[in-house]
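As agreed, record copied across for absentees:
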Amino acid sequence: MEKDKKEPAAENPYKLLDLKLTKVEKWAAGVPAVMAAFSDLFEEGVPIRGTRALFSMNQKGGFDCSSCAWPDPDDDRSPLGEYCENGAKALADEATTKKVTAEFFKKNSVYDLAKLTDFEIGRMGRLAEPMYIPKGGTHYEPISWDNAFKKIGEHLNALETPDQAAFYTSGRTSNEASFLYQLFAKEFGTNNMPDCSNMCHETSGTALLPTIGIGKGTVKLDDFYDTDLIVIIGQNPGTNAPRMMSALEKGKKNGAKIIAINPLPEAGLMGFRNPQQIYGIIGNGVKLADLYLPVKINGDMALLKALELLLLDFEKKSPGEVFDHQFIKEKTVGHDAFIKQFEDYKLEDLAEASGVSQAAIYEAAQMMAFKKRIIFCWGMGLTQQPNGVDMIREIVNLLLLKGSIGKPGAGVCPVRGHSNVQGNRTMMINEKPSDEQLDRIQNVFGFTPPRKHGYDVVGVIKAMQEDKVKVLFSMGGNFLSATPDTTYTAKALKKINLSVCVSTKLNRSHLIHGQEAIILPTFSRSDVDMVNGEAQFVSTESSMGIVQSSKGILKPISDNLVNEMQIVCRMAMATLGSKSVINWQRYADSYDAVRDDIEKCIPGFEDYNVRVRQKEGFYLPNAAREGNFITKKYGDRAPFTLTTTPDNLLAPDEYLMATTRTHDQFNTTIYGLDDRYRGIKNERRVVFMNQKDIEKGGFTDGEKVDLFNYDNGIERIAPLFVIVSYQIPERNTVTYFPETNVLVSINNVVGESNMPASKFVRIKIKKHNPNIYKLIDQL
């Protein structure tokens, strides 16, 4: 059952644990969330150290949580703590005093470590010193910081062209480090800057920029408190952004209605027990969703068009009361052509394609018809669909009809996952920088930045496979486990000359590496960052465009860590030397100096060093929030977009699969082995199926199966999963990532945004074959 012992495993071991099914919850948070939050601190042996940090996390003057990007309240923060269960787990992960040292790597080969699960790998502790593995090596060995940068510089300077290097970024990277990182890449000579946006919300920016003039959301947190209707589609706040539920609760109390649209009836969509309120501890909490629509995977477009068709009917019966004709006339273009398309649609066809009953769609349309203050929220349930860009544009279409965008209590809200993924993009971490951005860089710094677009995540994987990229530098993250087509990606990573990972903890990307590899350990958000005897702060941007400071309070677990900004500066000096026109030492010595130059290059950061020191931070400009849609093609107008409904035909033995994460997980970091809200305990290798599909397929609940994908004529196999009967639309299945990333073809991408379409994977399910591992080894 093991893979070839000559190579470390790119995936989690193919073994089952001891699955126990518990009750599927109908509400989220409450006392269990509080207990789970603190249990992790005890498990890591840091109850005092960790609790002290929790009360500083997300507080004014404290440090920003390294988990989700949900914004902090503008007014007073909760004295009991502005964190959620997942944030506490992330903090426990950072605050641990367990160390991964050179002695650890001396005792454990890369091959042996790869036999562990991602959960086990992540529990080893914080990386404590820089490590290096030579070509053909089996163990990492210590390397000095100077020698690490020297080796990186030698590899980069040996490339035939700067475009043979790529610089990946995770969302945890601060604004200041992100700015320096992209600045170095541009001075080095490449725009190869793949980042985690390419896997989560690239679709949102691609859809929104040409329609409303900005690739971000348009609402503030206060808009949730004073709105009429909140629509949550393709997003699970209970696990992905638990603090969002407090905002939903407040909106409900002020009269808002909530529509939840998702293939699974997630607990965080149904109810909320606020652990900071007495009724959330001893009472039944607050019912969140007034209406739940169980849409099929990728049935969202049909559902949105069905809603628009019904709204059009309501408008005909009550002219001027449903659509905002003045807004349409003054702020939009393309309305007539948009309306004309509905002559070709029938409600019964759209309802069937969506998987939602006509009666339920009608009820949703009624809830929207005579309301103007409407907020649409979405997550990767939309952005990771092949037609995700079009679906988000269809949401904009609906809001334009209603005049429900760019007004208080109304607009779009892409719920970002990682804590500074939006800030990374604002700081020009972008493989496709605009001419305006590049002109500013050139004017401020005096060098000519490259104009050719670089590789995104999918592009860089293919480029490594084709020997077009020879060095991959990863600023945070877990590149292998976050990306699609695991076998293909692993082979690509092994071909490159050098892989470098800036990390806080060990992960599988350190074990599937280039011919040479370097691990550079760095500070976490909660660590005190001392430079020249003074504790520093950095800044981040929330998913609603608030820039605020973040200042750690915990003593670092090692004296041999280097902060991200100095890592970039020292790499730049080792690589560019006297050729550089930038004073990198100035940046290494002063975070204020970095912010001074950000202010010169990026609009909205005027008086950066002054405003970021305000405890509440500051909002970046957002014209669409004010109702001004400054689009490149249509001037001050927002265009209606014509889209089509997809044809999701399946072969008789095919199912659609969507990958998701457990409640004990943040992206590729596995905190535990339970998915409490979905009733899964002590197992990750499960496939959720409709009971009718289980019976029709000749399976039984609890049976062991193997999963297959055949995109592009290539057989991809994820072996040894357990069937779990669940409330899910027929012919739809859900599994956890990264265990099933192997089934997501590198070519299964979202149109225009080129993101992996991990929520739309055609699979076949077969009874488990104990001999399947031999076939996998041959792949």
